[in-house]
Design a protein that fits this description.
Helix content is 63%, strand content 5%. The protein is mainly α. The chain has one domain: Up-down Bundle (Four Helix Bundle (Hemerythrin (Met), subunit A)). A hairpin with a 5-residue loop joins strand 1 and strand 2. The longest helix is centred in the middle third of the chain and has 31 residues.
């Protein structure tokens, strides 16, 4: 599929319908409040395209669920995201059909009701997107386990060599970096027994 699996395709299809549906509601709000028929016309066509795109995003998301490695926590978030996505599609799908049938015959009250439904759909859309973000940024869904393990090794400083062995870079010992300057003489405290020093020891007073 053009090098895309279902999870990648779902991620690619998410942004466009979200932007279109938000734009459609914004134009409808401007058209109703400002009594600008031109904005309502743009809102109508933007809504139709956004609803079609939303259907494609939902279908790809349902397919992606079966291709993602996940545990129980991810599954719960995924189920909620799925239910909210279906509700969002339902709201905007009904709204699109409503406007296809009634767009040229809507009175002020009916148009106000359609606008209220649009705003409710935007609210559900935001919550749906929030749960989708949790899947990626909190649970790393759709990222294969082997990729996560390799990334964790990189972040913790542990990496694999060609032979298959791994090691972790230890933090440098701050005390090892401290050395006694050769120019400063060392003085032994009184009562120190006679002793010898290794070659290279700086001069000092016994």
């Amino acid at each position: 599929m053009l090098g895309y699996g279902w999870p990648q395709l779902h991620a690619a299809l998410n942004d466009l319908p979200t932007a279109l549906l938000l734009t459609a509601v914004l134009f409808e709000l401007i058209g109703v409040v400002g009594r600008r028929p031109g904005f309502r016309q743009v809102s109508f066509w933007t809504l139709i395209v956004g609803a079609v795109g939303g259907a494609a995003a939902v279908i790809s998301g349902l397919q992606a669920e079966d291709h993602i490695e996940h545990g129980e926590a991810v599954h719960r978030v995924m189920e909620t995201h799925e239910q909210l996505g279906l509700i969002t599609l339902g709201v905007f799908g009904v709204l699109a059909l409503w406007r296809i049938v009634r767009e040229r015959r809507m009175g002020s009250l009916e148009r106000a009701l359609a606008l209220i439904l649009s705003l409710a759909g935007v609210g559900v859309l935001f919550v749906t997107a929030n749960y989708g973000g949790r899947l990626i940024f909190q649970h790393a869904a759709a990222i294969p386990s082997r990729v996560l393990e390799a990334e964790l090794q990189q972040r913790t400083g542990e990496h694999e060599h060609g032979s298959g062995a791994t090691h972790t870079h230890a933090a440098p010992d701050s005390m090892a970096a401290v050395s006694t300057p050769a120019s400063e003489p060392h003085v032994d405290p009184p009562g120190t027994p006679p002793h010898s020093h290794p070659p290279g020891t700086p001069p000092h007073d016994d």
